[in-house]
Amino acid sequence: QVQLVESGGGLVQPGGSLRLSCAASGSIFRIDFMGWYRQAPGKQRELVAVLTSGGTTNYADSVRGRFTASRDNAKNTVHLQMNSLHPEDTAVYYCYVHQLGRGYWGQGTQVTVSS
Hints:
By secondary structure, the chain is mostly beta strands. Helix content is 0%, strand content 58%. The termini are far apart.
């Protein structure tokens, strides 16, 4: 089993920034990819950013240029730097790890963008 612990959510004004972090622990052998998803009220969970073990990072069109995902393979952590936040970025953000054919989710952290 892989456990994921997220941190860094909160309330921020439009145009502000937040940094999310996720630490993976447990039975870690080789993580194929790590990433972030989000789910807004009444909407489906959607991809925000995914980082492969090969160093490729893919972003949703809605966040490209504003969000930056990074990964520390040695520490099994992944971060999401979110700049120029919009009210529509309000959602619960989930860390995701894929390893040996299985996916693991964090508990989620709330991000609220509001004045």
